[in-house]
Every structure is written in C-alpha cells, then in structure tokens.
Specification:
Layout (H helix, E strand, L loop, with lengths): L6 H40 L6 E3 L2 H10 L4 E5 L17 E2 L5 H5 L5 H6 L9 E6 L2 H13 L5 E5 L5 H4 L7 E2 L1 H7 L12 E5 L3 H7 L6 E2 L5 H5 L3 H8 L9 E5 L4 H12 L5 E4 L37 H10 L6
Parallel strand pairs: 1-5, 2-3, 2-4, 4-5, 6-10, 7-8, 7-9, 9-10
Organism: Tetraselmis chuii
GO cellular component, one term: mitochondrion
Pfam families: Rhodanese
C-alpha cells in the first residue's frame, strides 16, 4: 500500500506561515506610515513664522488699504466659495486658498501666475493674509516664510463686524518745530518731556537723503512685528530700547502717510501718547544734511534732492504747541 502524506498538517502549516508573513508585512507598512507621518509632522513643526510676521487690527488693516503706506499684497486664503463676503475695502484681494498657497508662492511651479495672471510679489514686499481664523492665517505665514517671504501681516476672524471694529484712532499731529524741540535740537534743554522719534523710512532713503539728528530707525513695514516683540528682542534687533506704552512716541517719515499708519498700529497696542510729525523729512528744512526729495519706491531710480532755503523755528509758537499738548515740563 502506498504511503499517505499528512496533507492536512502541511496545508495548516503553510496557511499559518502565510498569515504570519502577511501580518509582518502589514505591521511593517503601518510602522513605515507612522514613521513618515512623524517625519512630516517634525518637518512642519520646524517651520515657523518669520519674526516679522504680526497681526493687524481691523482699523490698521483698513488704513493700510486706504493709505497704501508701503508695497503689499492682500491675499484671501479662505476656501473657494467662502460663505461670508469680504468687506468692501478688501474686495480687490487676491484669492488663493491656504492649501494652494505653497504651490502659488513657489516660483518654479508658476501657480501664482496661473491663478492671478501676474508675477508673484517680490519677497521684499509684504504679504497680508486675511482668513476666517487665526489658525489659517498663521499657517499661511508659516508657508510664506518657508517660501522666502519674511514680512507677513495677518487678519483672521469674523468679517461681519469689520466696518464697526475698523474705527480709526484720532491723529495727533506735531509740527516741525515741536518735533525739533522734543529732540533737543531747538530751544532750551530740559524743558520738554522725553520722547522717542521713530524714522519709518527705508534704509536707502536715510542713506541717500540724510536723517533728522536724534531719530531712531524702524522701517514702517516692521512696526506691527516690532510692537509684538519683547523688550530684549526689540533692543537686539533695532539697537535701542523699546518705548513703553506710557512714553511719548513720534512717528516720522518722508511726509506723514507712513507715520499716520504706524501711529494707528501703536494705538492698537495701547500707546496713548503717539504723535505724527506732519511735515516729515521733506519739510524739515532746519539742516542742509536732511534733504527734500520726491517719493519713489524700492527699485526705482532715486530722484535728485530738491533745493530749499533754511528756515528758522518760531520759539513762541513752539512753546504754545508743546504746552497745549502736555509735552513741556512746567
């Protein structure tokens, strides 16, 4: 009689080995997916917003659109077909959902040009992200920083009360002679309160056309981020102490457009004694080293300085103005 092989035992063993192999493969695939997810999370977590990213109030966002104090591009990062309409002042925003932002800002992919019909903004310009939530606009700022855009302004939230919340702080204007007195450049020493005068112009403007003695430099497009810095970080970045919310701060630019916007940002952060020097470097005319010049943007040919005659301060009018504003020690 021929021998009979224990077929059942052999099949059972084979089935067990097959199941064991499948289980190992499933376990290995799950482990690989988990490892990939951890690496992706770590990569995402390592990406941060630039130190020059900051939040805007409705009032500062509105004034940014209305006065256009520096080059910027407003990007609506909400999903396509968002339920709530944007306020009228933001109707011209560029619509790019946050999930498509990285591809749009990566030059080699060309998605920005396809979506918008123009070249993407320069990395030196400021991107202003508006969205439905703080989380979404922060994510947009992280993506932008990874794509080389260091200056981002953020507004995330409910747009239903935007117009009501966008009321502007009253402007406190200061004359040239009063500004010079606060800097200790005219009049008797020690009669004015201490003040910090911030020159908001670009580096090239100060280098080419001079700066008012005693002013501190802080480019206007960095004001929102600077306001959110701790004192130590401010001093490390800008080289002078951060003014306190109770200090007198004077904003100065070429004329007063950038200064007015910066004053609104400061008011949003609790500064009660923030003034705008209304004539700017263009109207200084107390010092030949501070030249008058026409407006120009970065990348344009700088204009020739304009001739002017030196002028003399009016001590009586200056003292009257400073007393009325509470800026003179009595």
């Amino acid at each position: 009689m021929p021998s009979i092989t224990n077929v059942g035992g052999s099949v059972t063993s084979a089935l067990a080995l097959t199941l064991l192999a499948w289980g190992f493969r499933l376990f290995r695939a799950a482990a690989l997916r988990s490892d990939a997810a951890k690496k992706a999370h770590a990569k995402h977590a390592s990406r941060k917003m630039s130190r020059f990213a900051a939040h805007l109030s409705p009032a500062s966002l509105r004034l940014l659109v209305e006065s256009d104090p520096f080059p910027h591009t407003i990007v609506d990062i909400r999903p396509t077909g968002a339920k709530d309409p944007l306020p009228d002042c933001l109707k011209e925003s560029t619509a790019i959902p946050v999930r498509e932002l990285e591809a749009a800002l990566t030059p080699r992919k060309g998605n920005w040009q396809e979506a918008v019909g123009s070249e993407p903004p320069s990395p030196e310009s400021t991107l202003v992200f508006v969205g439905d939530s703080q989380q979404d606009v922060k994510e947009a700022a992280v993506i932008a920083a990874a794509c080389g855009y260091q200056k981002c302004l953020l507004f995330g939230g409910d747009f239903s009360d935007f117009d009501m919340d966008a009321s502007l702080a009253p402007k406190k204007m200061l004359s040239r002679d009063a500004t010079a007195a606060l800097l200790g450049l005219v009049g008797p020493a020690g009669v004015c309160v201490d003040a910090c005068v911030l020159d908001l112009r670009r580096h090239d403007e100060r280098a080419l056309y001079g700066c008012i003695p005693g002013t501190k430099h802080l480019p206007v497009d960095q004001i929102p981020a600077a306001m959110e810095m701790e004192d130590e970080a401010w001093k490390k970045v800008y080289g002078f102490p951060k003014p306190g919310v109770g200090d007198v701060v004077v904003m100065q630019c070429r004329t007063n457009r950038r200064a007015a916007w910066a004053a609104q940002v400061c008011a949003d952060h609790g500064y009660k004694s923030c003034f705008v020097y209304k004539s700017g470097a263009y109207g200084w005319r107390l010092d030949p080293s501070v030249k008058a010049y026409a407006s120009y943007e970065m990348g344009e040919c700088p204009p020739e300085p304009e001739p002017f005659g030196l002028e003399v301060p009016d001590p009586a009018a200056t003292a009257k103005e400073l007393i009325e504003l509470g800026l003179m020690r009595l």
